[in-house]
Structure formats: structure tokens, C-alpha cells
């Protein structure tokens, strides 16, 4: 196995159950160095749960997770920070790692928020905070980046720039990225491997393969499918509310 | 120099304030005020057990407080009761059991008031040694778990995801809380120790804008409270423990003025 395709994290039919309800089940995937793996799927399909399984935040899981790196950067989907804590952006940047000042500035410049370095975290807007979160995750030069909707709340031009940045980071740092995104356009153009979730893995493969896949089309509808390819499909199963499959 | 009871009290108070400063910030950040209270209440049981078994008081309080903390963590996992109900349950039942045990110890003359409110003027050189060595160990351990504890205070999932160990840090912090209560119980008493933890930290929050600054101001606030409180207590012959807490309240009120000022500046 060459250095190029070193596996960073591997899920083997992993699942997580909360109060007797499966949030996600039977997910197998792997993230390799220098590759971007994207999770797509409707709300409640278990994308964030899958990311948390991969990160080891959920411990009582089904199946297995094998992690081959400890240098991880994480941008969570939801983050609640308690404002009883006086915390500036530059304090937040060194939360889990000791970084020198120039590294912090460099990362903040990359995501376009260097001017906020001395500001209090509580005074930032949603989009600004999102940029700081991304800067924090990349500043420690991780081997594995887990980005759970990293550009939510960011303005339109910023969104495109940040996705370009993410792609650039994956090339420059040669790190693996596990990305969760709703923006199918970006996903399809920047990703090496797509995993389509709906409580389980519906389909996976290269963006083109997935776009052609009938289950993908069933989940996201005609329009999403047309953005990449037009493909005939027959629907062989439907999804119940808990993401279970019901064969026709 | 340590012959003088007042100098001894100052040394003891300064030692305690140096440790309650940083710990108190975490108590405020992690919303553990009532947790601290519960541990302090359980200290009474520790003291009475020490008397009845002729055991070292500091060690006994430490063990009982740590035990109560473990029971609490366990109950939180096993029952569906909310955290504050469990805290109340443990605080008052351990206080009650402690007072019941005192009833059985009729052969010893008990200074209950001293236990509740502390008697800093009665500390001896031994107590000072325990406070300073114990305090140094607490601060050292805190320094050691700082990264994990602080990161998980800001956000548990970030800390967990990026290779830190929040659960271990939390467990160790709980033990440190039991330790600070054990070494300072004689000085401020079990009803006031939480005040010593919270009030200087709350004061510091009002005037600081970074975590390290808040810890620094919290320590300074604690030290000032001890000095001001002790001198007032000497001057006006008031109870020393409550005087220290009253002094810290005074500093807190002063820090509110600073907020008012900065709000005015913003407008």
C-alpha cells in the first residue's frame, strides 16, 4: 500500500442506536489520505451521526471503527458555546492544540476572518463564526478533516470560496476529508467518493456513478439528478420514516 | 513570625485563595456551583466520621467528598432524576447524617459553628503546611489536565473528536474539588467554601475578556478578599470566614460598576 492511499479512518458496518431507535445502521466507508469523501442524504438520514461515529464521539456503537490517525480537525454542525466563558477568537484557535501566533493568523487569513482575531467569540455573526470554526480545524494541519456542513450560514460568494479552499487544503496538506454537505453542485464537482445515506448506505461511489444511481435520484429528485446526468431509473424500494427499506 | 495567630490566618487564607481562584473559574464555567455546595455539605459527615474514628480530618473529608461525587456521577447515569434534584438529595442527606452522627458523639465537645463557618484564626502551622502542599498539588494536577478540561468546557465533542480525554479530565477535576474542600474546610467552613470558589470568579468574569485573564483576576480577587476580610475581622471583631466572603461580595459589586461604565462607553 503506497503512501498515497493510506487509510485514515475505516467504518465497518457501523451503526448507532439512541433510545432503541437506530440513527444510522450498517455504514461501511473509508477515508484515505488526500481524498475527499462526502456524505449526502436528507435531514435525519444519519450524516452527522456517521461523522461522530468516525470521530469516536459515540462510543457504544455497532460494528467497528478503525482510526489510524490522531491529528484530526473537526467542524461540528451544531456548536453551543457557553458565554459564561470569556473567549476570544485567538483563544478558541488554540483550544485543542498549541499553535504559534503566525499559524493562527495564517489560518484565519485563509478563511478571511483575520480581522476578527481579537474579537470575542460571542460577538461574531453565524457566518463569521463558521469561518472561524473552519480556520481552527485546518490550523492544526490535521491528517483527517471532518467537516459537518462547514459553510452553513456563509454568504454565497464566501461559500464558493470556502469550498475551493477546502479542496485546496486537501491537496496542500494531503489530508483526508470527510465532508457533509447539502450543496450537491459542489459535492459532485469536488468529491472523490460520495456516500448517499438514508439511515443506511443507499448507494456510494464516484460522483458520476452516484448521480446515475436510481436511489440517489429517488432521494433527491429529478432536479438534483439532472444537474449531473439524466438517467432512467426504476424504484425498487421506498423509505419509511425511520429510514428502513420497504421493497416494492 | 508564625507565632502570631493573625499572620497564620493570613498565610492560610492566601494559600486557599491561590487555589480557589482557578478552580472557581471552572466551577462558574461548568455551572458547578451546586455541585460544590453538595460536596461541602458532605464534608460535615467527613468531619464527624474523623472524630468518631479518631482519623485525620482533612483526609476523612477528602474521602467522603470524593465518595459523594462518585455516587452522584453514578446516580446521574442510573436514574432519570434531574441533576439538581440529585444534588439536593445528596447535599441534605449527607448533612443530616453528619448532624445525626454528631448526636452520638456526646463525649466530644463539638464546635458546630466553627465547622459551618470556619475558624481561620485557629489554624496552626500544621494546617498551613497542609494547605500549601495540598494546594500546590491541586494546582499542579489542574495544570496537567488543563487542555482537556478547558477544551471540553468549551465544547465536549470538539475535545473528544480531536484526541483529548474529557471524561478523564472531568473525573480528576471532581477529585480536585473534593481536595480543595478538604484543605480549606477549617478556614472558611462548609457553608462558605462555595462562596470562596464562586464569588471571586464571578467578579473576575465581569472585568475580563479572556480565560487566562479571568483566572488571574479571580486569584487576585480571592487574595484581596482574604486580606480585607481578615483585617476587618480584626478591627471590628467580626467572624473571620463570613468577613472574607463579605469582602469578596464587596469586590463583586465594584466589578459591576466597571460593567456599567463599559456599557456607557459602548453607547
Provide a descriptive summary of the structure in words.
The complex is a heterodimer of chains A (248) and B (267). Chain A is an alpha/beta fold. Chain A contains eight helices and eleven strands. In chain A, a hairpin with a 2-residue loop joins strand 1 and strand 2. In chain A, helix 3 crosses helix 4. Chain A starts with 6 loop residues before the first strand and ends with a strand. Chain B is an all-alpha fold and 267 residues long. Chain B has one domain: ABC transporter involved in vitamin B12 uptake, BtuC (Orthogonal Bundle), CATH 1.10.3470. Chain B is built from eleven helices and no strands. The relative contact order of chain B is 0.17. Chains A and B meet through strand 5 of A and helix 6, helix 7 and helix 10 of B.
Key attributes of the depicted protein:
heterodimer; A: 248 residues; alpha/beta; Rossmann fold; 2 domains; 6-stranded mixed beta sheet; 3-stranded antiparallel beta sheet; 8 helices; 11 strands; 33% helix; B: 267 residues; mainly alpha; ABC transporter involved in vitamin B12 uptake, BtuC; 84% helix; 0% strand
Please name the CATH topology of the largest domain in chain A.
Answer: Rossmann fold
Counting structural domains of chain B, the number is 1
- Assembly state of the chains shown: heterodimer
Q: What's the architecture of chain B in CATH terms? A: Orthogonal Bundle
SSE pattern of chain B: HHHHHHHHHHH
DSSP helix fraction of chain B: over 70%
Note the total helix count of chain A: 8
Write the layout of secondary structure elements.
The complex is a heterodimer of chains A (248) and B (267).
Chain A (H helix, E strand, L loop, with lengths): L6 E12 L2 E12 L3 E5 L6 H9 L6 E6 L4 E4 L13 H5 L7 H10 L15 H14 L4 E5 L7 H17 L3 E5 L3 H7 L2 E5 L3 E5 L1 H6 L1 H13 L10 E3 L5 E3 L1
Parallel strand pairs in A: 3-7, 3-8, 5-6, 6-7
Antiparallel strand pairs in A: 1-2, 1-4, 8-9, 10-11
Chain B lengths: L4 H25 L3 H21 L3 H22 L4 H22 L7 H6 L7 H30 L1 H6 L4 H23 L4 H15 L3 H26 L3 H27 L1
Helix pairs in contact in B: 1-6, 1-8, 1-9, 1-10, 2-3, 2-4, 2-8, 2-9, 3-4, 3-8, 6-8, 9-10, 9-11, 10-11
